[in-house]
Amino acid sequence: MSFESLGEIARRRGTPLHRVEYVVRIREIHPSISAGGRNLYDAPTAKRIESELDAIDREKGTHHA
């Protein structure tokens, strides 16, 4: 199983890190594991983060890269 940090998720999507951090905070998404002081997210959790970002974009009628 692979894990990603919020920064890695943001880079992969081309989304500003602050948007990813915002979604995690307001949707109360918890890391899958913490390692070496870093919060890491497994694939299903990363997909949820991405889905939440997409939902916000749909609600606002915008798309952020």
Under the CATH scheme, the architecture is Orthogonal Bundle
Proportion in β-strands: 15-25%
* Arithmetic mean pLDDT: 93
Widest sheet: strand order? 1-3-2
- Give the biggest beta sheet: 3 strands, antiparallel
The count of strands amounts to 3
Question: Based on CA inertia axes, which overall geometry fits?
Answer: elongated
Residues in helix, %? 55-70%
Query: SS-based structural class?
Result: alpha+beta
User: How many helical stretches?
Assistant: 3
Which series of helices and strands comes N to C?
EHHEEH
CATH class: Mainly Alpha
Number of domains: 1
Computed over alpha carbons, the radius of gyration is 11 Å
**CATH third-level topology:** Multidrug-efflux Transporter Regulator, Chain: A, Domain 2
Ends: how far apart? Answer: 27 Å
**Poorly predicted runs of 5 or more residues:** none
Question: Tags for this entry?
Answer:
3 strands, alpha+beta, 3 helices, 65 residues
Report what the structure shows:
This protein has helices at residues 6-13, 17-26, 43-60; strands spanning 3-4, 33-35, 38-42. It is of the alpha+beta class and 65 residues long. It has one domain: Multidrug-efflux Transporter Regulator, Chain: A, Domain 2, CATH 1.10.1660. The protein has a 3-stranded antiparallel beta sheet with strand order 1-3-2. Helix 1 (6-13) crosses helix 2 (17-26) and helix 2 packs across helix 3 (43-60). The protein is elongated and about 40 Å long. The termini are far apart. The mean pLDDT is 93.
